[in-house]
Amino acid sequence: MGEKERDESQDANRIAVSRRGFLKAGAGLGAIAATGLALDLSKTDAEVAAPAQKPFPLKGYSLPLTPKGQSSIADAPPWHYGGDCLRLTFKADEKKVAALIPPPLEMGPNPGQGAVVFQEWVSVSEARPDLAFINPERAIYRECLVTLGCQYKGEPGNFVPYIWVDNDFTLARGFIQGYPKKLGRIYLTRLHELTPKIGGRQVGAKVKGICDVNAQRIIECSMTFTRPSEPSELPSARKSYLMRHFPSIEDPTRPVVHELTVPIVSNVKIKDVWGGDAQIKFFESPFEEVADLGPIEAQGAFFYSRGMTVSGGRVIHKYV
Amino acid sequence: MGEKERDESQDANRIAVSRRGFLKAGAGLGAIAATGLALDLSKTDAEVAAPAQKPFPLKGYSLPLTPKGQSSIADAPPWHYGGDCLRLTFKADEKKVAALIPPPLEMGPNPGQGAVVFQEWVSVSEARPDLAFINPERAIYRECLVTLGCQYKGEPGNFVPYIWVDNDFTLARGFIQGYPKKLGRIYLTRLHELTPKIGGRQVGAKVKGICDVNAQRIIECSMTFTRPSEPSELPSARKSYLMRHFPSIEDPTRPVVHELTVPIVSNVKIKDVWGGDAQIKFFESPFEEVADLGPIEAQGAFFYSRGMTVSGGRVIHKYV
Amino acid sequence: MGEKERDESQDANRIAVSRRGFLKAGAGLGAIAATGLALDLSKTDAEVAAPAQKPFPLKGYSLPLTPKGQSSIADAPPWHYGGDCLRLTFKADEKKVAALIPPPLEMGPNPGQGAVVFQEWVSVSEARPDLAFINPERAIYRECLVTLGCQYKGEPGNFVPYIWVDNDFTLARGFIQGYPKKLGRIYLTRLHELTPKIGGRQVGAKVKGICDVNAQRIIECSMTFTRPSEPSELPSARKSYLMRHFPSIEDPTRPVVHELTVPIVSNVKIKDVWGGDAQIKFFESPFEEVADLGPIEAQGAFFYSRGMTVSGGRVIHKYV
Amino acid sequence: MGEKERDESQDANRIAVSRRGFLKAGAGLGAIAATGLALDLSKTDAEVAAPAQKPFPLKGYSLPLTPKGQSSIADAPPWHYGGDCLRLTFKADEKKVAALIPPPLEMGPNPGQGAVVFQEWVSVSEARPDLAFINPERAIYRECLVTLGCQYKGEPGNFVPYIWVDNDFTLARGFIQGYPKKLGRIYLTRLHELTPKIGGRQVGAKVKGICDVNAQRIIECSMTFTRPSEPSELPSARKSYLMRHFPSIEDPTRPVVHELTVPIVSNVKIKDVWGGDAQIKFFESPFEEVADLGPIEAQGAFFYSRGMTVSGGRVIHKYV
User: Does D167 sit within 8 Å of A168, measured CB to CB?
Assistant: First the structure.
């Protein structure tokens, strides 16, 4: 077989590897495996034959790839984050939550448990920490997400079935990590201690989060501050389980990437935590399915500031 | 004279008053004045004739006027504000500054002095302090403005020739107060102490402000923090001199309102002041004239938090 | 009396005129009137005394006023318009419609009759017809408005109680003409004959209009095309009655401008008219009152292209 | 070896296949190959062992995957498009164009040839043709792209190094097809035959396209209509060569998908073609590299309406 399987391959769901190379080695496969050598299945015939090939001339962590490599929609991790967060916990019908959790993830130890998060982030990449200064729009965004308690091999965590953001670099990071991000208009009350009648975080302060998608309100949450709180009270110290998925352009039924990942998070800081009463509303829509989770029982809310670094992720399960 | 001057009057620049009433009283005008009675020139014939008229049925501080009176684009003052501010001072050519200052305002004691301000505000009205909670978008906005030092009858202050905002209630408040607001996209670096690589206000922190109007960058400023500072160091403790102006719909050459006002400001609080180095750029545009102020010499910058209440304004000079 | 009444006048609702001048002339007021001389009440003492004053150095139809006069948020009329329109007629409870119509306007010959209009406009000013070419964003906008049938002195017309737009120059034109414009996100299906599955205007085509204000859907309308139609079938060939209103900055209860106007419209062209079935929904909101018009009975819909010129307006009634 | 290589695999760039299965079969690999059996390397141990597994419960062409499968950011192709297009051709320095073209694509027969396209699209998916009616925002977008002439195995075509859009479903379709889309604000003059002073497509008409990215104008083009034209005159009847690329979340240096594709386009219609003079400007930016193509020589411009269907794509070359 020649190079043909690398060019104009019909089945995008099968990553073509050099079968020729495999078959040549076939007889000795058992022998090779026994030596403990790592089989590198990613090299092409050409690469095997001419390892000193010219490197690919265009650079970047993500598209577009360019000569300078500075146009990528998202830079490579690590990514640094800091900002204010409104987190509201809820309990939903177990069956409805289960319907959203992809096996082999399983229902969590607290069946039906979930949360809605409204977050304002300032975020830069390790590669270009000056982003927030060179062009502020490139470093600021808001997001609204739903998380559902689950577990993997007995280890509890949160799966994210729905999430909306309002900036493109974060949308792209989402595809790359496994957050199913879409664009929405996200609003979150901004408290400021110097604004008469509003003030800062204090007993009686009220915040609201609204997520509007294509001219339709989808999620609306509110919190009334009742008490100062501690980071230890926050329910969300669990790992996230995310699902990466990238469609084929040749066969719509067979994604070329479909796997579960866990983000590598470090450097987590939490500050100024307040607890309070929560209200959560999900709205019906011909396009968004988040209202199918309802009716839900809002349990409580926290408002706090947090910072962290995400250095990448680990793949824990592959579907393809 | 009959009602004719009230209906279908051709000259919109003349506020029609009941001449009939005046002329009737004409002979006794001197006498009336001598008694100290306040001449109320705003009443119509109808109102004078039938003071027990039904009140106007639609309510609101500004359009639209409605039965409930809760749809106005802007509520009545007092208006409360709180937020973070980047203020950069500059010196420009005196003649260019003078060309923008409307007489009888005069050049200030520091000829050529001006400032650019980038501000993130949280703002509510006294009438509806819950705005920020009911619908956050209605209480948050950013603005970018240019101020020029001037004086009025020997009292120094700042005139505002240019200002852009990104929300409608503040645009309307602008027309009402005398800020010549237009819509723009305003960006300001957001510092956050928990964001690795960015942090909060500290020596070495950098912020940038960008004002983009109709897909064209008009103003770009930046500040590098060099030292903590005090409210007393801020150059901007002067009053603002604003120019209200409302065109006629009948005669484009004769506005029906044209006057100078001073806002009534109270309850000013300033906190967390930092000083630093400033850079200011104005960009040419076929529509915006701010670049005509240049070239300018950026002098310094301050970043701080402030809050205040605006209760209305005083008219100090009328052109019509 | 001295100049005092011109400076720092307390009552913004009363247009200060030179009382001194009036009182001086007071005794002869009757005489003056009898001569037929037009009393010009807009001149200040200064202007009367020194008619050869320097002209006001800043130019523009609306703020900001500048040396070049090219920064105004809105240019002077005439204004030219062209674009596609979705117009849906409805019948509402007469009392609810009457509650929105400002006297002396009265209920129209078809009590309870109203319409919702979704419009995409391309618009330039006579002064700068190149706007659409120099900077397209400055010449394009969408609007959504509600009109209510009424009459003035027996002449039928439409009053506009509610209207949302998505660009600033049109918001300003609204304040100036008497359209109570606020900002919203307006969406209207765009038909295109070359889009497979959608096509252009034809039997069976469907269009939807959505008006979203501050992350809340306020109005939603749809039309299914059933038949080609003629301009003569359109119900909207009536004049508009608009209400100009400009608040005082000194006294929130007494606007300085409050009057009814009629826009001067010419050069109307209508083309490609289609008729069809209509659906109209108004949604409740804590801020918008349009849903108070309901429930309504949608009667019919038209989709067409139109162009026109607005040269200004005539004031037909003054409240102050 | 057990299932371990499927779970927690460290090297995301290597598609894990069931080595156990391979090794079992190892001895007979040559024999298997000789029989001509297609080796399906995508099945997991579990799938091989229990082919009657429950199907994956979440549905959708792209994330998010849900029970109903109607929340995907992008539906599966076919995708239908219709709209107006401004296409300007240019000649740039050959070396600069070559620097952007990914091997094995090569410089085209017209070295240095390229184009800028501003396009307003109405687009729906075959799966949900009613999108434009249910929620207009979901079916309308504008894009601005740069294309460069190239060839692959002697067949001329256009590579797309840069492209900006203003809606999320098209951004996602871009990642899936190989268009390196990012978000921008795209403006294009809208002609309308009924707008006085502007009119429709005619000799002398002028249109401008502006692409603004993060508050910075990146591309600005204009065309003055000089003559009616024919579809046959359009230079762009060539296929597009696109580059799909999806990063790893584990190893930033090794994308899991990197391949060249050709979109499958059908049902192309072109109408109302006009030709004219062109002007193209690229602007420098700290983030966008399009200005590195310059200086360029604008050659000509066309404005026309077009429609088409994209049914997917073919992979023609794989890098990994």
Answer: no
